[in-house]
Structure formats: structure tokens, C-alpha cells
Amino acid sequence: MRFSHKLLLLSVMMILLASFEMTAFAAEISLQEAIEAGLNNNSDILDAKDNLVNIERELKQLQVDDDWHLDLNVDSYAHELDLDDELSDVEFSITGSKTYWGGLTLESELYGSGDYSSQEDINDDETGLKLKLSQNLYPRIANQSEQSYIKAQLDLQAAQSELEKEKQAKIITWIREYLNLLRLKEKYEVAVKKNELAVNNFTEVNDKKRINEASEIDILTAQIELEESQYNLKEADNNYQQAKKSFYHQLKLENQDQLVLSADSKYLVMLEEMALRQEINFDDQAKLLDLSSVNSVELLKNKLEQESVRDDLEWSKAEDKPNLDLTGSYDSVDQDWGVGLSLSYNLFDSGKQKLAEEDLEAELTALEREHNDLIRDLSLDLEEIIDQIRLTETKLGTKKLSLSKAKLEKKIAEEQLTRGLIDKWELKEKKLALREAEINQREVEDELLVNKLELIKLLGMGHFEGGNKLEKIN
């Protein structure tokens, strides 16, 4: 039996030691680090980054495609079908070409032919160089590669803006979730205190019942309060744990990571200071709309699409004009060179060109209508955020009054306790009510901060990427 007790004690010590080691080695992670992890692992952000990388790769490929291209061709053949005859003729050529986006095309060819079976024949070989060039004079039309490159550059601008928008939207969402998690933890701590108070009150009422100082109603009342506090405690714990799991999932944090919940987080304080420094005149709607229009990713994408369609329309109209090219050639063997002009013009295409231009003009008109719709939508979004900020500020004023009332009630309860007018349980209840009022006010302050961050993002008045990368944009 003594051995069994020792074994049990040893097992308990090992479990406690393992638990201590798990706690000791669990990595603490700050809000800054959590956001950095989210920016590095979030699927939407990674998709936006992949899109950006693909466009950059496409731009490089388009540049490579128009660089010099060299080809080698060698042909060898015998004059007669005689297996013992080693005499043969050889012809070779090395051709190169390069197209410049200014309309210039260069072609070169180094060629040679002869019988290379003896030294004398080698000296009699023919080797020469041919050069050809073509320069587009009128109209100036970008070639296919240049057109693709111009469009890819427009896509790159849109992708860069889309990535930044996605980052800032995610950061604001994560800040909201972090603040919610912080308040849920505080509410859970209050629920623990309330449950302790209910347990102690139930115990005290039971003790009074034994000496006939408490009625059956008092016992039932205390029991109901205890069961309600236990339910509220479990609900508060569930809400906190579910919110924590959701936050970890969104930012791809590991389960063993210990997220530090603190209102004094350096990054959170930086955001609060940035929001506080912004001086925004809500009544100057025209200026605010101009700022948000300049910063709008949707309007930028619309503008770039219009630019792309205008380019297509310009190129399409240019193709319908007479085409004039300057050409030149040179052959070192024949000592022959020449220059000339080349004129080409499509006399009849069954109206195909006109239909293509009409389609492009219709597409441009639709994009201009979309631009006006986006401006109206942006104006509504701006009004909605401003109204929400004003409404939240009013709500905050009410919560401040409630907090002042809770502070006064706690002070009065302390005075009543000293005079014996109330018991210690009532004072504890007032203290918990004060704590709840503080949490309620902070919740509204959190809401106001998030609303201001949304407005700052909409107006482009601040830039926050995570970690310590935070700056104010004038």
C-alpha cells in the first residue's frame, strides 16, 4: 500500500512537471507578431501576392521574347552516292533577329558554304553577312509584344493596389477581433467573480437556514442566482474560447502560441495615436470624397481599364490607316546594299475593322457609366462611416454617464457599509457592476477606433501594414 501511494505521488508530480514545462515553453506572441503571421499566411493575401508575382513574371517574359534570338543551321551532303567518297559540301547559317518597341526590326544572317575536305577547299569557301532592317514610319503602332507589355503594366498597378487594400482590410478586421477577444476575456473574469460571489452567498444563506435565519424562499433565490451565475460563466468561457479559436484560425497561429492580450500593445497604441492625430472635417464632404476617390482601388481599376480600352481603340484606328515603313538591306558577299519605302493599305475588310471599333467604343461608354456609379457608391460609403462614427460618439457619451453612475453607486455603497446599512455582498456587487460599466465603455471605444480606422483607410490618410510599419500620410 505504501508503494502504491509513492507511485501515485510520483505520477502526480510528473504530470505537474509536464504541465509546467508545457506552460514554460509555450511561445508568447504579441499583437504585432500575430498580425505579421496573418499577413504572411492569410490565403486571400497570398492569392493577391501570387497574382502580383505572376504579372511581374509576365512582364519579364515579354521583355525576353523581344530580345535577340539566334539560330544555327548546318547542312552537309555528298555530290555522289559513294560510301568511300569523303568529299562533301557544307552549308551553314547563323541567323539573328530583334524587334524594338520603337517600330524597328533588325535581322542578321552569317552564312557560309563550301567543300571543307582539304585546306585548299577551305580557303575557297564563301562566307558572308546579310543585314536587313525595317522601321515603321507611319502610323506609329505598338507591336503585339509592346501592346501586351503596356496592358500588363496596367494590370500590375491594379494588382499592387489590390494587395495593399487587402492587407489593410484584413488588419482592421484582425484589430476588431483582437479587441473583441480582449473584452471577452475581461467579461469572463467578471463572470468568475460573480460566480464566486453567488457560491459564497448560497453557502451563507444555507448556514443561516440551519439556524432559522433564512427562509425557503431565500434558499431558492440564492440557488437560482448560483445556477444563473454558473450558466453565465460557462457562456462567457465558451464565447471567449470560440473567439480565440476563430482569431487563431484567421491568422494561422499555432495552438501552442500564447497570444498576449493587452490594451497596452505597442501596435494597438500606435493605431490609437494615429486615429487621434487625424483632424477630419466631417462637414467638408466634397474634400473627403475627393480624397477617397484618389485612394479608391475600384476607381483605379476602372481608370486603368478605360486606359486599356482607349489604347485598343487607338491601335485599332491606326491599323486602318496606310502603313509606311523604311526598309534597308546589306550583303557583304555581293557588296550590295539598298534602302526603300514600303507602303501597304487594306482596301476592303467587309466592315470588320469598323465593328471592332464600335465594340471598343461601347465598352468604353460602359466603363464611364461604371465610373459614375462607383463615385456614387463611394459617396454613400463615406456618409455611412461618418454617420456611424457620430452615432458611436453619442453612444460613448451615454456609456461614460453609466460609468460615472456606477462609480458613484460604488462610493455610496462603501459609505453605507461603514454605517452598517448594507452587507459586504452588496458592496462586491457594486464593484462588479462598476467593472462591467468600464468594459462596456471600452467596447464602445473599440468600436469607435475601428470606425476611424475604416475612415482613414477609405481616405488614404494613413498606412498600416502590421508590426511597427505604421505611418501617417499627409
From TrEMBL:
Keywords: Cell outer membrane, Coiled coil, Membrane, Signal, Transmembrane, Transmembrane beta strand, Transport. Belongs to the outer membrane factor (OMF) (TC 1.B.17) family. GO terms for cellular component: cell outer membrane; efflux pump complex. InterPro entries: OMP_efflux, TolC-like. Residues 1-26 form the signal peptide. This is Outer membrane protein TolC. Gene3D superfamilies: Outer membrane efflux proteins (OEP) (1.20.1600.10). It comes from the Bacteria. GO terms for molecular function: efflux transmembrane transporter activity; porin activity.
